[in-house]
Amino acid sequence: MTVTHHLRVHRSDENLERSGQLAWHIAEVATDPVEVEPDVVDMIINRVIDNAAVAAASLTRAPVSAARQQALDHAVSVGGDGATVFGCPLERRTSPEWAAWANGVAVRELDYHDTFLAADYSHPGDNIPPILAVAQHVGADGAALVRGLATGYEIQIDLVRAICLHKHKIDHVAHLGPSAAAGIGTLLGLDTETIYQAVGQALHTTTATRQSRKGEISTWKAHAPAFAGKMAVEAVDRAMRGETSPSPIYEGEDGVIAWMLDGPEASYDVPLPAAGEPKRGILDSYTKEHSAEYQAQAWIDLARRLHGEHEALRHAALGEGPDDVRVESIVLHTSHHTHYVIGSGANDPQKYDPTASRETLDHSIPYIFAVALQDGGWHHVDSYTPERAARADTVELWKKITTAEDAEWTRRYHSEDPNEKAFGGRVAITLTDGTVIEDEIAVADAHPLGARPFAREDYVRKFRILAEPVLSAEEIERFLGLAERLPELSAEEVQQLTIVAEHGVLASAPAPKGLF
């Protein structure tokens, strides 16, 4: 059964015992030796493959190259064997915190891996790079890695279920620091006290504002979760050396809740697994078929369907309809989040700017719906090129698309019933001849309740498609062979759980020089 931890602010003179603190309960979950169930193991394997797929597709992109160069400029720390860096030869290692950094950026750059949405947002696959890096460094086997990843996913998802960060403009990676620290603690078999201290430090060092996802969105968007993973590794290191953390980190009168979230009178109910209860949180998360913000996934699928089913609309969207029939307006009736974060309700002019960055376009549902409706699909590179964004007929259509909050779709977005929870909405398209086309979609096609739920073969296909331009056929099979045997891997095999680019691929990427 699930245990609900009631979380509130405590005055300093209340002397809240550690055993009553959320960080302590997180540490207790991390130290619980419960076995990882087979369906959870299977999904962990899927997500390891998924992370490698999107990392392969981003290897030559400038932010990934910059992070990789930073990591490679640091030697392996003396306490272990070091960790691999995506794209680099197996023998090329760096210190685990820097591997977590470089690989975290590679995974996050294209906004193309898994997601969980509830009270807040998250990409729980961001736990994999730091936990895997530490596993490689210390010589952990596949079974230990699986246990660590199950904890990382569980803690992040449980925090996201209960505590809203974005309402107070705190970036969602504040839930990632504690989860990654807890997962590393499970991996290493650390005691509750040590993990408690690491969780507190990881939270304290990973709280930042959401400006990284507002206005002109910069390349830091991909770096933010990687930074949280790096901080988690360093927090565990400090805790293992006996260093302590701000306490109580969540509940203190000058702590996170009191001053960053809902304030001194706030309270939350955080669900955590009871002692002996399996960690199954990962099964409530879902991956992306398309390289775009998760709330855009269902809208891409709806646009793709409309493109295929309505010939007149297809021509009108391209500005080539008969008798000059054009699109007059498109309104996406959707949830509060979609409207205010990636829709016209954000009041960000950059969301309608043909010269905007890829990161900004990725968070513009008017742009995404326009392109998907015209093209009948979505491509992780071609759909974002400056030439594609600036195409005259696209710009014309794009500026006719707005969003509107719909109370029912907001309610479904926040529903705790997985069969009712939805991330889509209803579209109303009006053509200049008076024709009105309406349709709706609740979840993406790849969602567990969608038209074509992702299974192992879909993850493998996604990996092959994204990896083939940069990995040899032999390397693709080598990696898949390891990943699909994850719980059985020896320590030596875990140290080979990475992707090695073909000769010349990384040489073609930018190699910026900095301080290091």
Spatial ordering of strands, largest sheet: 8-7-9-10
Cα radius of gyration in angstroms: 23 Å
CATH classification class of the largest domain = Mainly Alpha
Helicity range of the residues? 40-55%
DSSP strand count: 10
Task: Describe the protein's topology.
Elements lengths: L1 E7 L13 H10 L6 H20 L4 H11 L10 E2 L8 E2 L1 H13 L7 E2 L3 E2 L5 H11 L3 H21 L13 H13 L3 H13 L15 H21 L15 H5 L6 E7 L20 H16 L1 H7 L9 E8 L1 H7 L15 H4 L3 H11 L10 H4 L2 H7 L2 E5 L1 H8 L10 E7 L4 E6 L14 H12 L5 H11 L7 H4 L22
Parallel strand pairs: 7-8
Antiparallel strand pairs: 1-6, 2-3, 4-5, 7-9, 9-10
Helix pairs in contact: 1-7, 1-8, 2-4, 2-19, 3-4, 4-5, 4-9, 5-6, 5-7, 5-9, 6-7, 7-8, 7-9, 8-9, 11-15, 15-17
Structure report:
With 516 residues, the protein is an alpha+beta fold. It has helices at 22-31, 38-57, 62-72, 96-108, 128-138, 142-162, 176-188, 192-204, 220-240, 256-260, 294-309, 311-317, 336-342, 358-361, 365-375, 386-389, 392-398, 407-414, 456-467, 473-483, 491-494, and strands spanning 2-8, 83-84, 93-94, 116-117, 121-122, 267-273, 327-334, 401-405, 425-431, 436-441. It folds into 2 domains: 2-284, 2-methylcitrate dehydratase PrpD (Orthogonal Bundle), CATH 1.10.4100.10; 294-441, 60s Ribosomal Protein L30, Chain: A (2-Layer Sandwich). Helix 1 (22-31) runs parallel beside helix 7 (176-188) and helix 1 (22-31) crosses helix 8. The strands form 4 sheets. A 4-stranded mixed beta sheet has the order 8-7-9-10. Strands 1-6 form a two-stranded antiparallel ribbon.
